[in-house]
Specification:
Distance between the termini: 53 Å
Number of strands: 2
Structural class: mainly alpha
Oligomer: single chain
Order of helices and strands: HHHHHHHHHHHHHEEHH
Shape: globular
Length: about 350
């Protein structure tokens, strides 16, 4: 309420930064698990398992990508200066991301109706598109954390982030399959999740260590008093979720699916906590240590008009997403187009 009592050029950029942040988080979580399922498809040892893996994301994957469109749209209209700076710097990985998403979408549809002799090709292209999109996102995250600077060190760190995010998406994809699958596929997903969880934890740890090292401002926000007390719940909660995962893996697969929800819920928590840590670290900058949300924001009059539209668009997307997950709740069934 105190923020809303200030002038529009103060609270409007904050509101749009929040909307953009929520959109990015929802995209990472939702499209993250279906990209992860695509990355895991080569590990399935028969075509029936692979078909069920694809069917588990069939009703959701295109709706999940809506959040990426919304996030980029908000960046363009609300923070045009940052949009130009970020996307021009990250032009090549953005191009790879778009090619990967297109390839994945095309192969998803074609593999269902393709003749048997071509199905293996579309399976490989589905995996390739998922992997390209994930690696591109991880590379962009690494460069963003390093301040959008292209040096040998930042490129190496961005490459490590790309690999870590790939493992992280594979983990949340396996967690989704534990929740949605049954029988041998669920058992295989438990094994995949066990192998991937430590890569996810390592990736979050690496980014957490790098962020204060590349920015004295972030170091001050993390380790000065009393700020260190405000931040301490995030790593403590992350450790608690990892402990919960360890306990769940000791019981999975369980009779009656009693623990099936735990890996996916824990993955949501870990991704959310990592995102909150990044948001806390970089605020009020939209381009790390170069451009704040207030410097990059459009005119308050423009933001007010865009906000009116957002008040209709965002609830509509939320409602559509919630409806899709409610209608297709429960265990996965075979994907059919007839």
């Amino acid at each position: 309420m105190e923020l809303l009592g200030q002038s529009p050029d103060t609270w409007l950029p904050f509101v749009f930064a929040g909307l953009m942040g929520v959109s990015i988080l929802l995209y990472v979580i939702l499209d993250g698990y279906d990209l992860g399922v695509g990355i895991l498809t080569p590990l399935a040892d028969d075509e029936q398992k692979r078909d069920m893996m694809v069917a588990s994301i069939g009703p959701f994957w295109d709706a999940n990508e809506t959040w990426l469109v919304l996030a980029v749209g908000l960046l363009l209209v609300a923070f045009p200066a940052a949009h130009g700076m970020i996307l021009s710097t990250l032009y090549l990985p953005v191009f790879v991301l778009l090619v990967g998403l297109i390839l994945r979408g095309v192969s998803f549809e074609f593999r269902v109706k393709a003749r048997a002799k071509y199905k293996a090709l579309w399976n490989r292209l589905f995996f390739a598109g998922s992997l390209m999109a994930t690696l591109a996102q991880g590379f962009m995250l690494g460069l963003y954390v390093m301040g959008l600077e292209f040096t040998a060190g930042t490129i190496l760190f961005a490459t490590l982030c790309a690999m870590a995010l790939t493992v992280g998406y594979a983990f949340i994809g396996a967690a989704w399959l534990i929740l949605k699958a049954e029988g041998p596929l669920q058992t295989a997903a438990v094994a995949w999740a066990r192998r991937c969880v430590w890569g996810l934890a390592g990736g979050i740890g690496a980014i957490s260590l790098a962020s204060p090292l590349v920015s004295p401002r972030i170091w001050e926000k993390w380790f000065s008093f009393p700020e260190v007390l405000w931040l301490s719940p995030l790593p403590l909660a992350s450790l608690a979720l990892l402990a919960l995962l360890w306990r769940a893996f000791a019981h999975l697969p369980a009779e009656g699916d009693r623990w099936a929800w735990v890996p996916f819920a824990s993955a949501l928590g870990l991704f959310t906590l990592a995102f909150l840590g990044l948001a806390y670290s970089f605020y009020p900058y939209v381009v790390p240590d170069r451009l704040t949300i207030y410097e990059a924001a459009s005119a308050p009059e423009s933001l007010m008009i865009i906000l009116i539209g957002a008040l209709f668009v965002v609830p509509s997307i939320l409602g559509y997403t919630a409806l899709a997950y409610w209608v297709f709740r429960g265990k996965t069934r075979a994907l059919r187009y007839d």
